[in-house]
Amino acid sequence: MIFSVEGHILKIIGGEKLQTRRASDKYQVGKLYAIQAHRGAEGIPDGKIYIGQKIREWKPDLSDLPGNATLSRRWLEMEAGYPIRAFNAKEEGGYTPEEYEELYEKMHPAWTERWAYWFAFFTTAQIEECQRIEAEYKRKCG
After folding, report:
1. I want to staple 100 with a disulfide (CB 3.0 to 4.6 A). Which of 67, 95, 114, 115 is the partner?
2. Sequence-ordered strand ranges (E) for 5-133
3. Which domains does the chain have, with CATH numbers?
4. What is the DSSP letter of 77?
5. Mean pLDDT computed over 66-77
6. Gap between the Cα atoms of 16 and 48, Å rounded
């Protein structure tokens, strides 16, 4: 998975970044993914991320609603899960909701649907230990 925003990889390793939002639905829950700085780059050698959960978010077209800002804001919050909540923005790497939505809009100006992924970072040593335990269990239990 590519993390091209400066500092995001370090925030993942440090446990500050626990979520990412993507325009595509190509990542699967229960899978490990390499962490890359850009397309074509090798994954970092220190570990991988494990996708634990994902949900779909969308940005509704409010052009056909009445010009009532309160109604529009309430509809956005209740129906779409957009804009991002404060705790989600923090888990995106320490942002405020406004900072994060501004960053996302710069990266994906025409977005209407996105996927929110919650993940955990595992070091290479942790992954190898889990694989060893799994192999031992399979050997003993078939």
Report:
1. 95
2. 19-22, 32-34, 47-58, 113-123
3. 8-141 (2.30.130)
4. I
5. 57
6. 15
Cα angle for residues 35, 37, 43 (degrees, 5° grid):
40
pLDDT at 58: 85
3-state secondary structure (DSSP) of residue 65? coil
User: Cα(88)–Cα(38) distance, rounded to whole angstroms?
Assistant: 24
Q: How many angstroms separate the first and last alpha carbons of the chain? A: 33
pTM: 0.82
Integer Cα distance of 13 and 25 in angstroms:
23
pLDDT digits (tens, 9 = 90+) for 30-49: 999 999 999 999 999 999 99
With a cut of 70, say whether residue 76 has pLDDT above it.
Answer: no
